[in-house]
Structures are given as C-alpha cells and as structure tokens.
Fold:
Amino acid sequence: MKTKGAPYAFLAPALVLFAAFLAAPIVYAGYLSLRRVKVSGLGLGAGARTEVWAGLGNYARSLTDPEFVPSVLRVGAYGLIVVPVMLGLALVMALLLDAGRTRVGTFARTSIFLPYAVPAVIASLLWGFLYLPRVSPIVDVLDRVGITAPDALSSSWVLYAVANIAVWGGTGFNMIVLYTALRAIPTDLFEAARIDGASDIQIALRIKIPVIGPSLVMTFLFSLIATLQVFAEPMTLRPLSNTISTTWTPLMKVYRDAFVRNDIYSAAATSVIIAAATFVISYGFLKLVGSRAFSQEN
Amino acid sequence: MKKTLASVFAAALILTTAACSSDDSDDTPAANPDEKVALTYWSWAPNMDKVVEGWNASHPNIQVTVNKQDGGDPAVAKLLTAIKAGSGAPDVMQAEYQKIPTLVAADAVADIAKEAGDLKAKFPESAWNAVTLGGEALYGVPQDSGPMMFFYRSDVFDKAGVQVPKTWDEYAAAARTIHQKNPKQYLGTFSSNDPGWFAGLSQQAGASWWGVQGESWTVAINDATTKKVADYWGGLVQEGVIDNKPMYTPEWNAALNDGTQVGWLGAVWGPGVLEGNAASTKGKWKTALLPNWDAAAPANGNWGGSATSVTSQSKHKAQAAEFVKWLNTDPAAVKALAGTANVYPAANDATSVALTQPPAFFSNQPDFYTIAAEAGKITKPFTYGPNVNVAYSSYNDAFGKAAEGKKAADFGAALDTIQQATVGDLKNAGFTVAG
Structure:
C-alpha cells in the first residue's frame, strides 16, 4: 500500500500546481466564454445586470468581428517576416561561430544573445525612441548625410518596425540553441568530410544543417508560437503612433475586450479560439515534418 | 491587494455593530458618536494622504486610510474586479467623471443623495450633471475638474504677428500663418490617442454624446455638432497646417520643448504637463480661453476631472459620505486639494479660497486662475454613457486611421465608426437604446 502510494505522493505537487494554475484557469475561461452579461433597460442600479448562458454567441461575435480577420492576416504577414529572417540570421551566426574562424567567439556569442535578456516591453520602448523621427539619433545621423529616413511607424513601415524588434530580441536565443546542437556533432564526421575534400561551405550545407535538423524544427515551432502570441511589442508602441490599432493582433483584441471594454466573456471566447488555432497549427506542423523533431537518436 | 482585503475584512469584523444611519446633521457622523470607524480611500492624486491627515486629526472616530492607485483606468479595473468578487473594494473611491456611468451600471458606487444633503449650488453645473447623471441620485461629489484652456507661445505669436484666436476661424488662420512662416512649426496637433480631448472639444461645440430618454439611452457621437468639429480638424490636418501625431509621446514632448509645437489645446492642469515636458520654455507660454464657434456665445469643454464616490461595498455609507463631503467642500480641504494634491478643485469657491497665485510655470500670468474660473463657468453640460470605454477605444482606432491618412472626409466617417461600435455594444449587452 505504501509503495503503491509513493508515486502519487511524488506527483502530487506537480499535479496540484498543474490543476490550480493551468487546468482550472483553462476550464474557467471555457466556462466564461459561454456566459454573458444581460442588462435590462438603462442598466443603472442594483439588479440591472445578470449573468446568463450565451451558448456559442461569444464565439460567433469574435469570428465575425470585422477587426478579427485583418488582425489574423496581419500576424500571418508578421510571421512571414519574423520567422525566416530570425531563424536565417540565427543559423548563419551559429554556423559562423561554430566554424571557429573568429577569435572573439565568446564575446560575439554573448553579445548576440544579450538582447534576448532584455524584456520585450523595454526593448519596444528603446526601439520606439529610435523610431520616432524627432528623438531618434539614427534619423539625426541620416539627416546629416542628406538622407531622409522614412517614418518607421507610418502605415507602410510599421509591420517591419514591429518585426524588427522581435528579430532583434529573438535571434540570440535561437542562435544559442542551434550553436549548442552544432557543438554536439561528433568531429569525426567533419574529419571524414575533409579527407573526402569537402569545403567548409559544403560541410555546413551537407553535414551540419541536416544533422541539426531537429533543432531547426524545434526553433521553428517556438518561433511560430511566439509569433501567434505577439503582444508586448505592438502594445508598447501603440500610444506612439496612429498606425497600431487596439486590435492590431488577436491577443491585443483579447486584452482590449477584457480590460478596456470590461467584457471578459468575449475575451475568453477569443482566447479559446487563439489557443485552439495555436494547437492545430503547431500539431499540424509537427505532423508535417514527421517525427524528425524528436528522433535525433534514430 | 491582499493588504486591502485584509484591512477591509478586519474593519468589517471589528465593526459589525456599526449602524448606517441616514440621520446626519453636520457634525455627528452616526448614531453612536463614540464608535470608531476605519475607512479606506483609493485615490491616485499626489499627496492625498497629507490632505486626509487634516480630516483624521479632527475626526478621531472616523479614520481614513489612503491607498494610492496607479491612475484612473487601473483603479476602475481593480474596483470592478472587487465588485465581481463580492469583497475587496474600498469605502471611498476617486472616479473620473466619464467612468461614473460605467460604475453605476456595474452597481459599484452608492447613491449618497440622502447622506450628502444639498450640495448642488456649490459646484458648476457640468460637474454636478456628471455625478447625478442628470437624475435625483448622487453617485459622488465632484473633486476636481478640467476646464479646457488654450496654451500658446506668446513669443512665437508676437514674432509671427499673430493675435490670440478668439474663434476657430481665427485659430485656423493663425495655424496657417505660423506654419507658412516656419514650415517646422505647428500651432497644434490632432491626437488620435486622446478621446477625452476630442470629447471636450465636441462638448464645447454643444455635443453630448450620450443621453437618457425615458428608460432608454441615446447615443449621438456622429451628430451634426460633433461632425462639424471633426470636419474642422480633418480640414486642417489635410491642409497640413496642423500636425497629425498623437500627444503624450516622446516626439510630442520634444516638439513642445524645441518650439515646433507652439500651441496646445489643453486643460487647467496643463501647466504641470508643460513644466514636465518643456521646462526650457518657461516664461514663454501664455494661456487664454479656448477659441469659440460663436464669439458672441463663448462656451467651453472639459478634459479630465474626477469625483469622490462611496462604493456599494462600504459598510459605513453615512461616515464615508460625510468624509467625501468634507474633502470637496470644506474650505481647508479644498485649499489642501489645490495646494498639496495639486488638483483644480471643482468647488465654485475654490478660486477665492485656494487659487490666489498662478501656477509656477505661468508666474508671468497673474490672472491664470481667473481665466480658469471663467473657463469652468462657461463649460457646457455633457452626459457620459455606460460604455465610454468602448467609444474611447474605438476613437483610438478610427481616428488613428483618419489622422494617418490625412483626408478630411475620413474624420467624419471615423465618427460613424465610433457611433456604430458604441450603439452595437450597448444593444448587444441588452441596454435599451433609442433611435
């Protein structure tokens, strides 16, 4: 009896924490998404508002909100910029560091990684100052040499301005992941390739990249999820510009509904939709690339 | 939060015998004068605890503790959460005028008409209207108000040979002259970030975005009056003589400081903002009444301001109401509000008892508060509705687009978008909406 109970005793802390801080909030959000407040008349005074079942009404409203589809498309475009650029840069830097050509390897590694340690809100504020023409030293310098810099927060540039912050902040992390994977490759592979006459570039393309494939898949998946959840950067830049609306990304819409409009019910519905979409996309991606991501040993 | 909860619980436990008495002659707080009552007060005004010390010293049986808040929006979000949770709300709460209908609709603030007595004559009509919602109930006592005022760089005006505009036509002409003489300079900016600012300008023109008609709400955000205001600004932005960048950004601060924004349609609390953002321009600014639509019938709008309300969770409504009344009408308290908490008290007699000196940043203008008092007196009534937050966030989006596009026609259309969002939200929640 004692031995039978032991595993559960060890599991209990994790299970309790999981139930209290993950499962329960999810269930509560699901419950809220099916509720709504019903007001009668002027809605003033006690008893004028009651909470009632809403069925799937909140979901229908969320999906048919004219701001919802554009915000989803915007995040799609944002992802098309961020994910390839960030992972491309991370891969190139990891390969360069791994090639050992540079003496300043440790310094370079740290300095590339450092932006990841800056919280997204702080990073957005820093970049915000660099974007605003009148306070930006970059615009100043360009002005001196006779180049008129475009307004980074104007409607044609704002997507790149936000993507740039994410790339700046995320490249270092992905670089470290890929670099660590590169260091784990047995060196006899390279020796064999060199004896066969392969150049550094050929080694990189034919050996290193295929071998760290699983790591690339993982970083891609993380980047994808981070893209779907983009929030802090546009939220921080919003008051600085005319071009970022309160529903610029789906998560910003959740925030607006819950904390600006005091409508936690439709915010809950939108959250459930985002969570479901994130799950489907991540799962679909993993299915698509097969089991490569988790089968390095085979 | 926890602390607040604990203290509220403690107060509730200790004082379960407290009776809420509706009989309150001026100096006896409740049925039993020996009974000690502890009240909590959420406010974000600076140094409010020092103002309250004056009350605590003279009222040993009603001790008020100030709980400093981050600002109007977070305080309301916290209060609404506490109301939904059933406990955790303070007894007394600072509430911005535009939030009062939202709080009343959520049953978060109490009607203290009976406890407070007749105070109507002590406050300007616009402020009184905001705390009564035009009815018999009283959902708070006006604390501070924000009559709009026009701030301008008198040195730039003199150099450009521009007179202080008395009408909006003159303002437009001045904007053109200043921008033509120096293409880097603007007389102002249209801010898509400040719905309260645009609401104030519309209020001046005679708009009232919400209203009560019998048992239903009316919404008139895209009425002819507001359209007139939007079209006016759209025209100036399209022409390029007024900037289209939002206020309260590092960009705007820099422009005030380096003399490229040479005017600001602000409010009575503006000197503090200018001092913080454009300290190096001290002594160059002057203030005047807002330009008018009709020079013969001067009017004004309000931007900012708040009331002090008693929450529906308070167990000591009578004592709380007495404190609220003292805070906003007692001459010593009003003086402390102005001098210590740095707000512009809503009480009519504030100018004579408290505001004899101009603010430091405007020491060159001794009649600053005379102008402010005049601005407050001519402020038009304006009714806020139960979903101001929805309209305001819709303003951010719709006017952000319009300002970015710089097309006059989009400004009027933005109002239609806001109207639609606001009415849609009311109907969806079940409110009765007329029209």
Observations:
- Chain A touches chain B through 37 residues (CB under 8 Å).
